[in-house]
Amino acid sequence: MTDVVAEMVEAARQANSAYAVAGVDDLPFDGGSFDLVMAYNVLMDVDDVPTAIGEIRRVMKPGGTLLISLVHPFRDRGRFAGEAADAPFVLDGSYYGRERFDGEEDRDGLTMHFAGWSQPLEDYVAVLEGAGLAITALREPIPDRVDSDLLRKWARVPLFLWLKARILA
């Protein structure tokens, strides 16, 4: 397991797990090392997705599986027109093309900073295909609980996209 955040790696070490500080563009593992690779909410933060996917593909064993979780590309391109649960979701500009995002969100007294790249699903698919990977499953999970106006609003628009891909024979 790797993470670019040293504090996350240290927390994992304290839990007796084997982790390394490394970026996805230069993984410190031999080729063909893993049956399963998980890229959890990381690809939208990577400047060079083709290099990252190529490196992931390199460390996968033949017949290996890649699981990807992304903030849904559609979510990054729009906003709700108001605070009400039934407020329209408005697309800002175009869904197509690669765009940089950088912003802050305040929630429960915490300010979170988000920065990365938004790109359409087709771009991710093309990169996977180019690396010799085929998508075998796609999910857009719906929240289990919608007990507030905020959650009801977000239950109408996909927040995450989950992909399962395998190495093509």
From TrEMBL:
GO MF: S-adenosylmethionine-dependent methyltransferase activity
Domain annotation Methyltransferase type: ranges: 2-68
Example of a GO biological process term: methylation
Record flagged with keyword Iron-sulfur: no
Protein name: SAM-dependent methyltransferase
Pfam families: Methyltransf_11
Protein keywords: Methyltransferase, Transferase
